[in-house]
Design a protein that fits this description.
Layout lengths: L5 H24 L6 H23 L3 H30 L11 H7 L2 H10 L2 H4 L4 E2 L2 E2 H21 L6
Antiparallel strand pairs: 1-2
């Protein structure tokens, strides 16, 4: 399964499907506006997807394949960290969370470092559970998805280097 370009194609397709689901189903069809942490999770999935896409086009072998595996693993881990933080905000008891503005509003009115700091502190928007399936909220499913991308990444990193 982790031979040739196949894992790159699989990872790219999965990331494209995840982003399409987030935008077209959750945002446009259900009308759920993403909170700042949701946007950062989307960005992490896009980064992973772009890395998979480049790897799919490149078809790396040998050491370059391992470089892709490391980069994909790091990007997946970053997204996992954001999803875990989001879940902590949703399922913990955080009365101190205040409602915050949209990410666009924050970027227009504050310096970038303050925006990043405020996003990771969390807002009421990030702490609210607006949708769930089997008791798992959107960041929970994002965590499951990114763990799958990490598994593919580790397969690329530690798999045998074959030409097909």
């Amino acid at each position: 399964m982790f031979k040739g370009r196949s894992p790159f194609f699989l990872g790219f397709g999965a990331c494209a499907a995840a982003i399409a689901t987030a935008i077209f189903y959750f945002q446009h069809y259900l009308g759920l506006e993403p909170c700042p942490l949701c946007i950062f999770q989307r960005i992490s999935i896009m980064v992973v997807g772009v890395l998979f896409f480049i790897g799919m086009l490149h078809g790396p072998l040998g050491m370059m394949r391992r470089v892709y595996g490391v980069l994909l693993s790091l990007a997946s881990l970053a997204g996992i960290g954001i999803a875990v933080r989001h879940l902590w905000l949703q399922y913990g008891s955080h009365e101190e969370l205040a409602c915050g503005g949209t990410l666009e509003f924050m970027l227009e009115n504050d310096p970038l470092m303050k925006v990043i700091e405020d996003v990771f502190k969390g807002t009421g928007d990030c702490g609210e559970i607006v949708w769930s399936l089997f008791g798992i909220s959107i960041p929970g499913w994002t965590l499951v998805f990114l763990m799958g991308m990490l598994a593919i990444s580790l397969g690329i990193l530690f798999g045998k280097n074959r030409t097909h």
